[in-house]
Every structure is written in C-alpha cells, then in structure tokens.
Amino acid sequence: MDPKFFKLLLLGGAVRFYFCRTPLAAMIGNRVEFATPLNSHKRMQEGIFLLQSGIDPYQGDLVHESPLILSALSGLFKNYPQFLPVFYIILDIFTAALLYTMSRRFVKQKQDQQNVERKEYAKDTEELQFSCLDKLDIPELVIVAYLFNPLTVMSCIGMTSTVISNLFLAFFLYCLVKGLLLPCLLVLAFETVRSFYPIVLIAPLLLVFSRSSIRRGVVISLLFIVSCLIVAAANFFVLNSWNFLDGTLGFIFYFRDLQPNIGLFWYFFTEMFEHFRTMFLITFQLNATVLYLVPLSIKLRKEPLLLATVLVALMAVFRAYPSLGDVGFYLALLPLWKRCWKFMAHGFVVFTFFLVTLSMMGALWHLWIYAGSANANFYFGATLAFSTGQIFLITDLLFAHVKREFCLFNGQKILIDGEEARIVLK
Amino acid sequence: MGLLSDPSISTQSKLVDGLARHVRLVCYALYVAGVAWFFCLALPEFNHGTYLSENALSPGLVYPEIRIDANRLAIQLLEELHRERKDHLSTTPHAWIAAKMNEFGLETHTHNYTLRYPFGGGKEYHGKNIYGILRAPRIASTEGIVFAAPYRAASSVHTDISASVPLLLAFADFARRKNYWAKDLIFLVTEQEQLGMQAWLEAYHDGDRDLDVSKAYLRPGNLPARAGSLQAALNIEVQDLEIDHVDVRIEGLNGKLPNLDMFNLVQRIMAREGIASGYKQAPRKKRRHSQSPFEQNLRQMLTMLASQSSGVPNGNHGLFHRYRIDALTIAANRRATHATLKGSPGSAAVPLLKAIEGIARSLNNLLERFHQSFFFYVIVNNDRYISIGDYMPALVALVACAFVKAYLTWSTLPVTNAEQETPAGLVREQEQEEELEPDSEPDKFELPYGSVLIYLTATLLIGFLCNVLPLQQYFLEIPMGAAPLTTSVLSFLSLIGFILPFVVVLPPGGLELLHVAFLLIYGCALIVIGLLNFALGFFAAVLTVPLVISLETKEENSRSTLRNSVRLATLVMNPMMVIYVIVLAMTFYQFPELSLQKIMLRAATAAMDASAYGLIDSVIYGNWLYFVICTIFLPLWIICWTLALSKRRDYADYLDFDESPSTSPQPKVKTN
C-alpha cells in the first residue's frame, strides 16, 4: 500500500464530509435520481422507527429494506443520529479500499496469465498487454473513479442505502478475485435476498470456482441456495414473520411503487393496460436478469470479472428501481479494462450523453413537478436517453474486449489487399 | 448496425477525419439551419391555428346575464373612487374599498406585509392588500379563482388604471347574487405593483410557515382566510370604462406562460362581446400595407420572445405562475378620442363586464386544473401558435453546433507520444471526473485534467461570488445605493475574470481540453436554459454561437486578424457589455433626440440600475435572470476569453507537442 492510496482515501472522505454539511445533502436525499423507494434514507429511518416500536415495518408500503440491515443499524440510528453521515462516508471509503485491493490483485493475475501466454501474442500488441506500470495505475484509477465520481459522492451524502449495496458488491468482487468461496457465496446470498438482482452474479462465481467440473458447479449452486435460505431464515428471526419477503423481494418483483426514477419501468407501467401487467412484469424482469446472462456467460467464460462488471452494469440499467449510485459503482469498475479502451469508440459520445441527460433531468423535473408545465413524457425522455447512453457504454466495452482479444493474438495491423481489414461478424 | 458494433479495428473513422477538417463549415451550416428554421416558423405552413382543448371550459355556452345596472354601479363607484383619490394622493383608500366589499356581502379581509429593503443601509416598507372572498354555494371552499385588480395611487408615475377597482367591485356585486359558483371567488386589490401581489401570494401559500426573519427580504405575514387551492387567476387593468381595445398579457415570471387554453378562452369571449382584443394588441390604426403576413408574424414572435427573455412578468398575473396557477392580465386601454364613440357612454363598460362574466363562468366549469393544451408555445398571431415540438428544433440545431464541434475537436486532440493513451481511453477517465495529475514520466504526455478542472472551478467560483457578495452584510452596510454597489461588485469580478488568463497559463494540452470542456458546458447550459425559458436560451444561442464556432486555440496564426477580431468579439460579448449594449439600444430608441454622449451616459446609469433590479428581482420574486447571468454566462465568458487569448506556456519540450490538430489529424493510432 503506498501513501498515495491513503491520501486519496482521505481526500475522498473529506470531499464527502464537506458536501454532507451543505444544504446539498438534504436536497440529494430527496431527488428521485438518487433516492428510490428501495434505498431512500427516509424510508430507512421509518423502518427503524417502526422496528423499535415493535411494529412490523412491512405491513405498510413504505419500508423495503431487509430486516437484518434495519436491526443492525437501529442502534446507530437511535443513539447516534448525528454520526450517520460519517458512518456512510466510512462505508463508502471501505468500498473504495476494497475495490483498490481487488483491482491490484486482478492486475497481478492478469500479468501472470500474460506471462504464460506471451509467446502466442502477436508482435505489435505491447499496448494491449498489461504493463508493469498498470499494477499501480489501474488500482489508482479505480479508486479515483470511485471516490471522486460525483454520482457516488452524491449518493453517499444523500445517505442512500446504495452505499451499503455497493459495499457488499465490492466485497463480493474482492472475494471473487481472491478466490474466497464461502464469503463470496454468503455476501451474494445476502445481497440477493436483499435486492434480488444480484442473483445474476452467480454466473461469474460459478465460472471462477468451478472452472472444469460440473459436479463442483452443482455443489456450489446448492450451497448458494442453502446460504440464501440461511440468510432468509436469519431475516425471519428478526421479526418472526415472513412478511419481509413480500416487502423486499415481492416489492421489487411486482414493481408496486411507480415513483419516477432513472430506470425504464415506471413510465411503462403507468401507461400500460392493467391486464397486461403480469406479462410485461415477467418480460421486464427477465430482461433485467436472465436474458443476457446465458449468452454473456458463454462469451465471457474466460473473463469472469468482465462478466461481473457487465452484469453489474446491466443490472444498474434494467433493474426496477435503479439509482445513480449504482451507475457510479460500475463506472468505477471500467478502469480495470483500461487495456480495452483503445477500441472503445463511443466514450466521448457516452460522456456527452451522460452530461446532457443528467443536466436535463433536473430542469425537466422542475418543469414537471414544480412548474407544472411539462409532464412525465419530458422527464422520461431524458431518462430514456440516459439509459441509451449506458447501453452504448456497455456494448462498447464488450466489443472493445472482443477486438482486443482478437488483436492480441493476430496483431493490430492486418492488411488484406492493401486495405485495412475489418472484422466480419458471423 | 455499424453504430454499436463497428467492425473496424481502428477507432479512427474516415468520416470523422473528413468532418474534422471542416468543423466550422459544418457548424455554420447547422447554425444557419437553426436560424432559418426559426424564420420558417413565421410562415403559415409551419404554425397551427389555436383551438380549445379543454372541453369543460365551453366558452360562450351561457348567455351573459350581467346588465346595464352593473355598468351604472361601476360608473358610480368610479366617481366615488375619484373623490377618494383626492384625499389619498399617495396611498390606497383601503377603508373605502373594504367598506364597499363589505357592503356587497363579501368576506373581506386585509393583509399586511413588510419589505425589508436591504440596500443603502436598509429600509422598511409596509403595504396592505384587501381581498374579499365570495364563498361558493356549491363547494366547501376547496378551490378558488382569483380576480385581481392592482391599485395605483394617484401620485404613481405609471398610467392611471383606477377604473379597474370599480369594475372589479361591480362584477363582485353581480357575482354575489348568483348561486352557480362551484369555486370560491377571491376579489383582490393589491398595491405597490407586483410587490403587493407577490406578498399576497406568498402569504396565501406559505403564510403559516416560519420564515427565517434575518434572511427574508419580503415578510408576507399570514392571511386570515383562504379559499382552497387556486385554479386560475385573472388580473384586470382597466384605464377607463370606455375602452378601445384589450391587450392580453401572458408572459410570467421566468418566461413561463399560462396554458394556451386560457389565452384562447379569453380571446373567444372577447371576440363574442365584440371587443378588439389580442396578444400585444395595438390601438387600431391604419396598418402599413407594406407589411406582409410573414413580416407581421415574425415581428409578433420576436416581440413575444423579447418580453419573455428577461423573465420579468409584464403584469401581476406573472407571479401566479410560480405557484402553478394559470393567470393572465387583460389590460383594457382607454379610448383615445370620443369621435368614434358608438354606444352611449352609459353602457360603455358592458361588453367588458360581460366578457369578465363569461371568463369567470368558464373557469367555474373547470373540473381540474388546466392541463390539456400547451404550456410551451409562441404566439404568432392572435389565433395561431407554435408549439414546443416545432420551435425546439431551432434551438437544438444551434446547440448541436457546440456538441458537434466538441466531438470533432476531441477526436483530433493532439495527444503525442502517449503510446498507452488513446482518446477513447481518456474519455473514460474524464467521464469519471478524475482529477488526474500529469504523469511524472517525461516520455508520457497526458492531458492536464487536474489543472483544467481547477480552472473551471475557479471561474465557477467567480460566478458564485457575484451571487453572494452583493448581499453580504459588510457590503450592505456601506452607505451606497443598490445600483453602484451591484455594478462595482460585478465589474470587479469581471475584471478578475479578464485578468485570469494572463495570470494563470494552462500546461500544454490544457487549452484544447478546456476548449472541449467549454463547448460541452456551453451546450448543456443552453439546453437547460432553453428548456426553462426558451426565449432566453434562444437569444443567447443566436448571439453567441457564431463566436463560439469561430473560437480556436491553435498555435499558428494566433496573431492573424481573424483571431484578433474573435478576441474583440469576445470582449464585446462580456455579459456586462451585452447588458450595456441592450440598454443603450433601448435608450436610443426611446430618446432619439438626445446627443450620443448623453445617451451613452444615460444608458450607463440605466444599465447599472438594471443589474441592481436584476438582483432585487432574484431576491424578492425569484427571477432567475441574475443567477443565470452570474453563475453560468459569466464563467463561460471567462473561459471563452481564455480560449480566445490562447496564452501558452513557453516550454522547451513544447516542440514535440505542436502537432497541430487539423493539418495531420491523428494518425497516432495507425502509426503504432
């Protein structure tokens, strides 16, 4: 660990600390882009209050946090509410540190793999290979991208529970790279019971831990199911009721709250005829979970971490209640694929998309909700464009990876009849 | 399918290279297209006829029942009021108005408010509004409609509109006798122009809220009685009972407009009563026949946008918009000569009263708030409009210039020797707002993100100070008027912005990066401003886009006349200068007889006043103009000025950097 790492962590914490003391923090906590029904701080407070008063929080339609988290945080919420922002900041810094160690380990693994395969590489591909500098550069980029991304900063100062999700996801990735099966399974089971969508991350987990044997894979899957049941049971014992399943997973799956957010669900489900609801619900949830899972797992079977990155990103786009904090998390994973960047053609376009749509969201929300002159369509237009930008980014990353793999073994300059070759997709 | 799955290995596309060589041409073409589209909108093929979208309004469904006796009452009240005005030269005859409202059976209340004027040592002004509520017989005070009439004291410099109050009272008397009201009617008489209205509205909506007394400049107090959620409001400004024509005013705070249905409703009913009425209606006179319909339409559009762009409402109705209440003003102008008098003088106000009754009964029919029709429109003619979908492309084309130029500038950025860095890769970094410090290794050259970010923050800070400084306590304690204080703070900060590029010189590559960042921020800012207030965004775009297109930061021919003229243009585009020039032009039109020197002097004081008014408006009424100019346009101008100057560091290793972007557009990837 070099001192720069600690300096960055401190600076990141300081930035968060400064902003959480400005009026911005309260504003962010109320913005639909950051605080969704799932992760909003207010609902967490409500849930903890209900829990402490001995009322089942899931009987109403307000609280969707898992009971374990509620009971774990209830002491802090009750006794030291003034330290809550600091608590969230510490969690966020933990996430950053985990990402840092994870990416160090990852780069090292890549370099080892490279040393084995080096002979097969084409001649002019040094810039596509991981260099020795990358061991310092890439983790630093990752941590900077996490700590100083406005999206994660805002998400943290708004005290959304996305901060907690991000911590768990970072821990999952860390264990995945380190090869720690049991913690990996447990944390994934916990996140799955809490917010459903991380279930897709079982694919990279299986790819890492059961590389060749199917039997092992089956055992791991069974273990995963068992740990999910254990987590569910642990949740059950907090309140001695199964209500929480409907309050968290059911709430996510059935998409009961139509509050606008940056995702694609809300507008669609407000406009749709009610008797088609079940069908579209299943379609949308399939799209968010298994639709891309199989093809991507087959294509990226050699790169489980890239698979995890892409799945986390797709989750952030297609989940029922996405928030900008999720987006910030997967953006921080992109520097891991620095060696693919050369082939990413749409970076600037995506950046512009993000900038324009995010700034438009504020204006259109004002016009719709406060001024009353615009309407839902305007805001949905902006969020749709934002999602499109994200899709561009993910596709771009995937294609860049494919191209890098190809060029790594075949060289970057391939001339056919004196013209530059083009890859034909068949 | 090539967009997402481009099969070529190299990311450098030939199309981009080709376009990059003609950035300016492409951008100018877009600019011309945008402006041309705007002009086309004045053609009848491009705009649409107005129609009523909300069926519940059903204008003209009922026969007006108001009769000549209401007119007689109005005349009698006007005479009484004129007597009262002799005793109340500079105040409002509150007692008389309240007595009349009580006499007509309204639930009458008064509302006191205080303005704490912050400048020049601080002063306090007190004001008083009077309002009477007619409780609807058919509903439990859940909804209300406001009929407002501003009262101007006899000593006021503005046009006398004392006939509004008698007319309002006469209508109130009529309305009280009817049993069909489904919404409470509030009859409101305000004083001190918009201040009274603002105070009343704030008291109505937030009166029960505890204000931070030290910060609030306007203390609205609370109201003793309310009438539910306000659905619509009609502001009446009548110069005399004998009217020539009615001017319907719609522009509200920050360029907001009432629903087009409301405008149409007023137009229909006015037409039925035979009153010449319209948007920006001028006295009937012989029109110049030389004006084609196209020219008339265009003139109408431009005047509408001009009055919208400042964001200052042109009547008391504008303040309602902030609370999501659709409102407009009907300003009835006095008949100039009695020669064209048609009806008898005893029934002169009957059509207007009938019209007000018709509007009131239509609004009474509303089942929910105005929501059908359009909120974003430009009125081309009294019965033709342009909707947002039609006029937005003009602005989008203008803003697209900035984005296209940003993309092409970016894709030809001179990144040298950076074997490992590629443009796409760098975007990733920028996307995550990283504060990268330039690498220490000499052979590697990265774009100086950190310093550019700091530079941007510094300019934003200057803009932020413009907002905050003039209202700081220690500045306010200086015994100086609002105008000189604001102006001196603003010009001091602009001066800092002017000097900044001379003092701080960005590292190599910084200017190019700053250029791209500038274009992106500029584009975003224009889009957002255009969404909130189309007129302001559009005018700003038309004015500044050509300059932004012609900006360049190349090293060679930095002393050419073109570059120098760009620098000059940038200087002129300073927000302070622009305000001065606009005020100068207005002064010139208003007082063409003065000598040039006098006009310039007068314009200077007027511009100073304008900036102070802007500040006061933003503090009291919530007008965004001052904020937008200070926080967005001024920082943008500073960056623009930096780019126009293009000061560079004289580095020894500078030579291997000057691979100019357009002459050899990025062979970097291929040469590897």
Automatic annotation (TrEMBL), chain A:
Keywords: Endoplasmic reticulum, GPI-anchor biosynthesis, Membrane, Transmembrane, Transmembrane helix
The keyword Glycoprotein is assigned to this record: no
Topology with respect to the bilayer: Multi-pass membrane protein
Any single biological process term in GO: attachment of GPI anchor to protein
Locations listed in the record: Endoplasmic reticulum membrane
Primary localisation category: endoplasmic reticulum
Protease keyword on record: no
UniProt similarity note: Belongs to the PIGU family.
Protein known as: Phosphatidylinositol glycan anchor biosynthesis class U protein
Gene responsible for this protein: LOC108045001
TrEMBL record, chain B:
Keyword Transmembrane helix: yes
Annotated region described as Disordered, given as residue ranges: 421-441
Keywords recorded for this protein, A-Z: Membrane, Transmembrane, Transmembrane helix
Keyword Glycoprotein: no
Single GO BP term: attachment of GPI anchor to protein
GO CC annotation, single: GPI-anchor transamidase complex
Membrane-crossing segments per the record: 23-43, 391-410, 452-471, 483-504, 516-549, 570-591, 624-645
Pfam families, sorted: Gaa1
Acidic residues composition-biased segments: 431-440
Protein name per its UniProtKB record: Glycosylphosphatidylinositol anchor attachment 1 protein
Lineage: Eukaryota, Metazoa, Ecdysozoa, Arthropoda, Hexapoda
